[in-house]
Amino acid sequence: MRLKARLTQEQGIPTASMADIAFLLIIFFMVTITFEVDKTQVVLPKTEIRFEVPKKAAYISITEAGHIRVSSGEEISVPVPGPEDVLSFAAGVVATDPSKAFVLKADATVPYRYVDRVIDALKQSKAEVIYLLSQQETIENQLPEG
Fold this sequence. Notes:
alpha/beta, Nucleotidyltransferase, domain 5, about 30% helix, 5-stranded mixed beta sheet
């Protein structure tokens, strides 16, 4: 009796589901990624305590050279010429969302008069919550002792 030789199948990795896996990974990374809206580099002043700021807050940055950049928290920050323009920007943000928090991020070497002008512009625009960003470990729901 003669036996027929069987055809042998070559070994390999099944790649039929690779596209599905790649697609799921792309979806996962698209859903979980968060973008930083204000990438202005500043050296923050040191403080004893710092509270966590909201993720969707509007950002105002003042660089060491005195340049001001603003972001409503949903797009990349853009430069503005001066504090007067911060007032119009903040008024527009407050008009769309009156409870929107503002984060002021100023370099430690910026003269306080520039920071004061920006805070005055935020007050004039009727901003309810203003955070002054500093360099320190974040402490949740605690007040400084004193």
